[in-house]
Amino acid sequence: MDVILKKLEDVDWNNAQQTLDQQGYAIVENVLNADDCQEFIEGFENPERYRKNVDMERYRFGKGHYKYFKYPLPDILSKLREHVYPKLVPVANQWMRNLKLDINFPASLSELHKKCVVNGQLLATPLILKYTKEGFNTLHQDLYGDVYFPIQAVLFLNKVEKDYTGGEFVMTQQVPRAQSKAIVLRPKKGSMLIFTTNYRPLLGKKGHYRVTMKHGVSEVHSGERYTLGVIFHDATT
């Protein structure tokens, strides 16, 4: 079996699903090895891989650069996206039921992409992000169109405190009529963080209610920070 597929098959997905449902995020360690991480980092400067390069400061998204891959995606990224998506569908659909929303996500990534095509969303959304000293990413949501999957992932390509300092992954959880809760994470190199794209249910005294989630990156103090963003739905631009 392919190495990346073997690693993903060995994941305790029941535990990951439960953690994701309870917390809004879950961390799976050792998804990428050191060679995988280095290959993506070295490929950052290869323009043949990408369809779009974004200077975050220009658009007031933060300070850093990110590049959207074009189809066909690198093999590891494609396999990871196709294999992880169906593991997340049960959580996504349960969230929709909890919130009494008439939304049902298909079992396969290819079926989700058919829905994207109908809505004019044809472009790849996986991306690689680079931050240097003083780089950061403002709080945001990765939606890209009317068709969007409520869960996404990010993979960490270098080692915090060795390759960079600062640069924590930050999420905020906005409970209605209350202050936001901040969640700050520092996953290990090669880890995959699975998290909420836009909103998720929380159980209250009167049933489930919706909480809005956003994510970003705190300021990098030194070094270079690289990550891979894995969004499952496609984009219009």
TrEMBL record:
Keyword Oxidoreductase belongs to the record: yes
Entry keyword annotation includes DNA damage: no
Needed cofactors: L-ascorbate
Domain annotation Prolyl 4-hydroxylase alpha subunit: ranges: 23-233
GO molecular function: dioxygenase activity; iron ion binding; L-ascorbic acid binding; oxidoreductase activity, acting on paired donors, with incorporation or reduction of molecular oxygen
InterPro entries assigned: DUF2086, Pro_4_hyd_alph
Name this polypeptide is given: Prolyl 4-hydroxylase alpha subunit domain-containing protein
Keywords for the protein's UniProt record, in alphabetical order: Dioxygenase, Oxidoreductase
